[in-house]
């Protein structure tokens, strides 16, 4: 009969990597944003203590050892020592940025921290009261050598065997003999793949850093029963959360109607994320007849400022990063018939919209000194992406070629006499 076990699997803490994707940072969020990676990481160690786990698996990229960040090193040392006081072991394999052998020589790691070489797969047994209860096979990231599943093959044993590694692995190839759990790092998005005899898991980063890392982030808490069956729980830990928001509106929307809908959406976000500051990028997806008034930059800016005043002035809640009006799916048909530069431009767009065989070749518009690998994908876009590109291109042309004709009037002209200032 196998021993019961409890462990935490975390990776990609990136303690010294700041938030990105913000063109402006409100002063009341400076401290929150700066401390978010540390607060998220601390939840990993807090849970290890409160759950009295057997060990913590750290699958790389905890911090950048090349930068010599004193705060990051001091934080990790203090957390390792907390776990040592509770007899909780740490098994740490290095990633692309953190190599345990580059840990400051003047600062000795506690005895409960076990690190792994990046050159070979090393094997250690985790013991409880002098008896082995689990096997950990670990190896740090090595840019010169791509690890294969065969490197982690283990002899048959009653011990629950874990492979601890960092890198971009082909999930389908991870079929090492007798390995029950793959504790992987190197992918900021968490994923879990159940195989016939094993479970492959990227724990993800505890804290998303940019709009590309939207949604909840956290780490894994694993429990193994006496029959060797694994139960895995996702624990959310992010302090700041990116959540893109897409709201469908009609082109003829009245401002008070839009305000009501945004209020309902924002209130729900705040209620659902009581432990996070949410960074939202709003996109208004429009339907119906084209309305130039709602596409004025001043109109969007005033709506955005209202959202910030209503929901974003505290250290909890919702901060609206941006608000954009999406390019409409349909534009006035008479624009395609005009005997003007705008008409010529719209007819050219129309040809691409109606004929999928016309390729979007953007190479001729890129600098000649840009490497081909960076631009090779420009002509390979999905149908949905193609349609979006063409709609955006049409709007750029309209902005330049029809600014006075179609965007005339005052900023306040939205749906007759109702004004932005009067309703916000």
Write the topology of this structure:
Elements: E1 5-10, H1 30-50, E2 55-58, H2 70-85, E3 89-93, E4 113-116, E5 122-128, E6 131-139, E7 160-166, E8 181-185, E9 191-194, E10 199-202, E11 218-224, E12 230-236, E13 240-242, E14 245-250, H3 255-272, E15 277-287, H4 297-311, E16 317-325, H5 341-354, H6 372-375, H7 383-401, H8 403-406, H9 420-423
Parallel strand pairs: 1-2, 2-3, 3-4, 6-7, 7-8, 8-10, 13-15, 14-15, 15-16
Antiparallel strand pairs: 1-11, 5-6, 9-10, 11-12
Give the domain tally: 2
Structural class: alpha/beta
Describe the biggest sheet?
6 strands, mixed
- Order of strands in the sheet with most strands: 4-3-2-1-11-12
**Estimated radius of gyration:** 27 Å
Q: pLDDT average, as an integer?
A: 85
Q: What is the percentage of strand-forming residues?
A: 15-25%
Which CATH class of the largest domain? Alpha Beta
Instruction: Name the helicity range.
Output: 25-40%
Distance between the termini: 67 Å
> Could you say what the CATH architecture of the largest domain is?
4-Layer Sandwich
Shape: elongated
CATH topology of the largest domain: Purple Acid Phosphatase, chain A, domain 2
Number of helices: 9
Q: Based on DSSP secondary structure assignment, what is the total number of beta strands?
A: 16
CATH superfamily grouping of the largest domain: Metallo-dependent phosphatases
> pLDDT under 50 segments (min length 5)?
407-424
SSE sequence, one letter per element: EHEHEEEEEEEEEEEEHEHEHHHHH
């Amino acid at each position: 009969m196998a021993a019961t076990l409890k462990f935490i699997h975390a990776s990609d803490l990136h303690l010294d990597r700041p938030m990105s994707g913000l063109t402006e940072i409100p002063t009341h969020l400076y401290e929150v944003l700066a401390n978010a990676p540390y607060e998220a990481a601390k939840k990993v160690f807090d849970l290890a203590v409160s759950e009295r786990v057997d060990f913590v698996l750290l699958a790389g990229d905890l911090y950048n050892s090349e930068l010599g960040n004193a705060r990051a090193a001091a934080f990790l040392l203090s957390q390792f020592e907390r776990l040592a006081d509770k007899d909780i072991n740490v098994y740490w394999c290095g990633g692309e940025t953190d190599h345990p052998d580059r840990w400051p020589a003047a600062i000795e790691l506690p005895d409960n921290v076990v690190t792994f070489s990046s050159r070979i797969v090393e094997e250690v047994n985790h013991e409880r009261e002098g008896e082995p209860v689990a096997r950990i096979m670990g190896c740090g990231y090595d840019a010169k050598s791509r690890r294969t599943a065969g490197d982690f093959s283990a002899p048959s044993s009653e011990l629950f065997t874990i492979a601890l590694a960092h890198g971009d692995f082909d999930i389908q190839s991870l079929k090492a003999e007798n390995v029950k759990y793959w504790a992987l790092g190197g992918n900021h998005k968490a994923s879990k793949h159940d195989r016939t005899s094993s479970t492959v898991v990227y724990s993800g980063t505890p804290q998303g850093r940019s709009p590309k890392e939207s949604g909840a982030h956290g780490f894994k808490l694993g429990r193994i029963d006496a029959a060797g069956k694994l139960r895995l729980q996702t624990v959310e830990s992010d302090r700041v959360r990116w959540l893109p928001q897409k709201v469908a509106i009609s082109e003829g929307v009245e401002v008070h109607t839009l305000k009501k809908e945004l209020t309902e959406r924002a209130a729900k976000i705040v209620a659902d994320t009581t432990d996070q500051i949410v960074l939202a990028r709003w996109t208004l997806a429009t339907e119906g007849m084209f309305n130039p008034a709602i596409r004025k930059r001043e109109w969007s800016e005033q709506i955005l400022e209202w959202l910030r005043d209503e929901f974003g002035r505290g250290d909890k809640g919702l901060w609206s990063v941006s608000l954009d009006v999406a390019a409409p799916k349909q534009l006035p048909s008479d624009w395609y018939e005009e005997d003007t530069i705008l008409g010529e431009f719209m007819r050219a767009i129309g040809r691409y919209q109606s004929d999928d065989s016309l390729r979007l070749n953007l190479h001729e518009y890129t600098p000649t000194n840009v490497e081909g690998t960076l631009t090779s994908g420009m002509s390979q876009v999905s149908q949905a992406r193609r349609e979006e590109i063409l709609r955006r291109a049409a709007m750029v042309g309209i902005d330049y070629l029809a600014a006075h004709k179609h965007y005339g009037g005052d900023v306040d002209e939205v749906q007759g006499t109702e004004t932005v200032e009067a309703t916000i």
